[in-house]
C-alpha cells in the first residue's frame, strides 16, 4: 500500500537538477534504483542519511555499467529531436550485444529513473509522463520538458 505523503508534490516538480541533499526529507530517491524511498519508522532519526531503498540496492550501488547506461540514454537523446523519445532497449543495444540486452533492461530502467531525479529526462508511456517509482510495462525516455 502506497500513500502519497504530499498531494501537492506532483511528479516532475522543479526539484530536478541539483537539489540540496538531505534537505527535502519527504522526497528522497534511491541512489541505486532511482525509486522513491518512503520514510520508515525505524529511520525516523536518520532519514536524511538513508540513500538506498533496500539492502539489495545498497549492495549494488551504482556500478560503472550503470553509469554507462545513463550516458548511453543521454547520448541517444542528444542525437534526436528534442521532443523525441527512446526505448531503454536502444540504450542497452549501444553498449551490449543482442544476447545481453534482456539482462540489461532492468538496469537501463534504473538508469532512466536516476536520470529523472537528476532532472534530465522524463519517463513516458503512451506520451504521458509516468511516476518513475511506480510504472508497469514498456516505457520510453525523453528529454525533460
Ligand atoms: Zn533502490
What tags apply to this protein structure?
145 residues, alpha+beta, Arc Repressor Mutant, subunit A, 2 domains, four-stranded antiparallel β-sheet, 4 helices, globular, binds zinc ion
Could you walk me through the main structural features you see in this protein, from its secondary elements to its overall organization?
By secondary structure, the chain is an alpha+beta fold. The chain has two domains: 3-60, no CATH class; 64-143, Winged helix-like DNA-binding domain superfamily/Winged helix DNA-binding domain (Arc Repressor Mutant, subunit A), CATH 1.10.10. The chain has helices at residues 55-60, 64-79, 88-95, 101-117; strands spanning 85-86, 121-125, 128-129, 140-143. It has a four-stranded antiparallel sheet with strand order 1-4-2-3. α2 packs across α4 and α3 crosses α4. The two termini are 30 Å apart. Mean pLDDT is 82; it is low at 1-25. Zinc ion is lined by residues 30, 32-33, 35, 52-54, 57.
What's the short story on this structure?
With 145 residues, the chain is an alpha+beta fold. Helices cover 32% and strands 9% of the residues.
Structural class estimated from helices and strands:
alpha+beta
Mean pLDDT across the residues is 82
Number of helices: 4
Using the 3D structure, state the CATH architecture of the largest domain: Orthogonal Bundle
Bound ligands, each once: zinc ion
Number of domains: 2
Topology overview:
Elements: H1 55-60, H2 64-79, E1 85-86, H3 88-95, H4 101-117, E2 121-125, E3 128-129, E4 140-143
Antiparallel strand pairs: 1-4, 2-3, 2-4
